[in-house]
Predict the 3D structure of the following.
Amino acid sequence: MRRILPITLVLAAMAPTALAEDGKNRVKKLITERCALCHGAQGEASSPIYPRLAHQNRIYLEKQLKNFRDGKRKSDIMNEQAKDLTDEEIAALAEHFSSQPALSHRIPRSKKPLEAVGWYIFHKGNKWSDIPPCKSCHGEKGEGNENLPRLAGQHKRYVIAQLKAFHERKRTNDNAIMHTIAKNLTELEIQAVALYVSGLAPEAKKAEAR
Ligand code: HEC
Ligand code: HEC
């Protein structure tokens, strides 16, 4: 007994570590074999139609993944991708993507006038059509906070698509606030603010605008 006891203790001490390793490997596999196809392994997003997840806020990511899994936020692609994820895997995926370096877009000179309209909407809103400044919730530099998405450096095509989805209530989870805002935005304002936030760069490296 005296000889066996230490071995049992050693095994007991090893078991959780071994399990944790398994879990980590599965999350790594999920990232490289699934998420990376569309979002890039570091969340950079291979195509501008997919959202960048790099440096997105952790709690926001966790919430969206759970909502996709549970069908609260509807997206044929993401409902399928998230349906078999456990809470632990979702937490690890959110941790991974939120800790990747922030990215941004370089806005070409020819688009500076449109970017300026976006600056106005983001910082001042539009008092004539009841649009609050985006920065009042999403932060002075579009960095968001724990519960609110980072908009800084996001692909503009994705931002445009989401603003339209909020307007049409096709984004089905917690859309109340953004529906009220998006329904009053004109096409010009949508294009402009999406361009503007894509170029915001708190802590980010810049790449060509897409
Ligand atoms: C086949 C392409 C594809 C794959 C693979 C994929 N996604 Fe997505 N993802 C999308 C699309 C498209 C959207 C936008 C959905 C919408 O329109 O609401 C999205 C949205 C998201 C969002 C919401 C981002 C935001 O800013 O609200 C998160 C989080 C996310 N995906 C995480 C993941 C994770 C984690 C994986 C891997 C387990 C993954 N995705 C795999 C295409 C993909
Ligand atoms: C009163 C607060 C508030 C204001 C003002 C606001 N938003 Fe939002 N926004 C939110 C919340 C809350 C969410 C996240 C909803 C959720 O949790 O699913 C959000 C989500 C978004 C998303 C989705 C991001 C993603 O990664 O999928 C976009 C895009 C967005 N807002 C753009 C804007 C723009 C542009 C403006 C200004 C015209 C604006 N918001 C003003 C609260 C606000």
Q: What stands out?
A: The pocket of heme C (ligand 1) is lined by residues 30, 34-35, 37-39, 50-51, 53, 56, 61, 64-65, 75, 77-78, 81, 93, 149 (CB under 6 Å). The radius of gyration is 21 Å. The CA atoms of residues 35 and 41 lie 7 Å apart. The mean pLDDT is 91.
